[in-house]
Amino acid sequence: MSVGRRLRADGSSPLDAHETVRIDRSDSVERYRFVCPNGHTDWDKTNNHIWCRSCRQQAENGDDVHPEHWEIVDKKTDEEIPWSAVEISADRGAWSAQSP
Ligand SMILES: [Zn+2]
User: pLDDT (tens digit, 9 = 90+) per residue, 44-64?
Assistant: First the structure.
């Protein structure tokens, strides 16, 4: 038999990688839908984690929060999306339209 059977992660195993979630941050609906675990919208994806500006500010004000996160939250589904599955599209939108 040579059925092209593709083994795709169906989410039944906790070891399955999360399906990639592409977020268009120039879209205000998506921008406010995906938040850091503390509910902020002004996070960024770095090379190895999610970094949140508002959490950083809270930390500087003495709150016991960390600006680095390993996942974000989809407010629509209450689902946590791991860093590795987050893909930012249109990242160089309105903010840096002038760059060469
Ligand atoms: Zn935050």
Answer: 999 999 999 999 999 999 999
Q: Could you give the CA distance from residue 15 to residue 50 in angstroms, rounded to a whole number?
A: 21
Domain annotation covers residue 70: yes
Domain boundaries, position 83: 21-90
Distance 13 CA to ligand 1 centre (A): 29
Q: How far is the CA of 71 from the centre of ligand 1 (A)?
A: 11
Show contacts of 8-15: CB within 8 Å, 24+ apart: none
C-alpha–C-alpha distance, residues 46 and 4, integer Å: 36
Domain count, the chain: 1
Q: Is residue 3 part of a domain?
A: no
pTM of the model: 0.72
**How many angstroms does the Cα of residue 15 sit away from the middle of ligand 1?**
26
37 alpha carbon – ligand 1 mean position (Å): 6
Q: Is residue 75 in some structural domain?
A: yes
Q: What is the pLDDT of residue 61?
A: 97
Query: Which residues of the chain, if any, have pLDDT below 70?
Result: 1-16, 90-100
